[in-house]
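Hi there,

I know you've been waiting on this one. I reran it after we fixed the sequence typo, so this is the corrected version. Both the input and the resulting structure follow.
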Amino acid sequence: MLKIQRTTSENPDFSQLVTLLDAYLWEVYPETQAEYDTFNVIESNDTVVIAYNDNVAVGCGCLKKIDQEAAEIKRMFVSPASRGLGVSHLILAELEKWADELGFSYLILETLHKQTAAISLYQKRGYQRIDNYGPYVGLPNSICMRKAI
């Protein structure tokens, strides 16, 4: 049974999932992780979502405030064994709902061009490609997207 929980970056399940995410990224993208790793530091964050399947943490994501209008989706991850169950859709829907409740007008995100499943997910949920922003400007491996909420 899948369930979603709002929490903070202090949650040990979030820390565990982020560790798995980082290991996955280093394994799949060793050529880019040295540069990208610095963009993914999550200090203290009170807008974290964790997905549970039968009380086991299987996915996560969080929001990072950019300004009064925008938040960035960060640290989206679903454990490999739980992919294909709709976990990422649930996480993303909850992040979008939370961002709306917090008064943001739109969400932005960055993913790597090889992450075709992630790009497809975001497109299905109404995200559109935009010019690379912030630290991703000039990085050809980055795909940046935006959605009004």
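Quick highlight: The chain is about 30% helix and 30% strand.

Best,
R. S.
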